[in-house]
Specification:
Layout (H helix, E strand, L loop, with lengths): L1 H5 L22 H13 L12 H17 L4 H6 L4
């Protein structure tokens, strides 16, 4: 750990664009899907990628549902689901 801490101010770009880390805490599918949506849209309705309470997860899911119902990019998806 001391060697890692000594490098914390290193601002060079990583050689690879991704990291794979072992998951040490229980994650749910909702956690992963919300993380993917954040990456795709740049929006966030609560960070639950490291796990969260059910209340936080519910709030995040509701935020994404509102986003999908109001964002113009989802107009075709809403029409195909009969949501309009």
């Amino acid at each position: 750990m001391p060697a890692i801490i000594a490098q914390l101010d290193n601002r060079r770009r990583l050689k690879y664009r991704y990291l794979i880390l072992e998951n040490h805490s229980p994650k749910l599918m909702v956690d992963a899907l919300a993380t993917i949506l954040i990456q795709l849209t740049g929006q966030s309705f609560g960070t639950i990628s490291n796990g969260a309470t059910n209340t936080k997860r519910d709030n995040t899911v509701n935020g994404w549902r509102v986003y999908a119902m109001t964002h113009p990019d989802f107009e075709n998806a809403r029409a195909s689901l009969g949501s309009e």
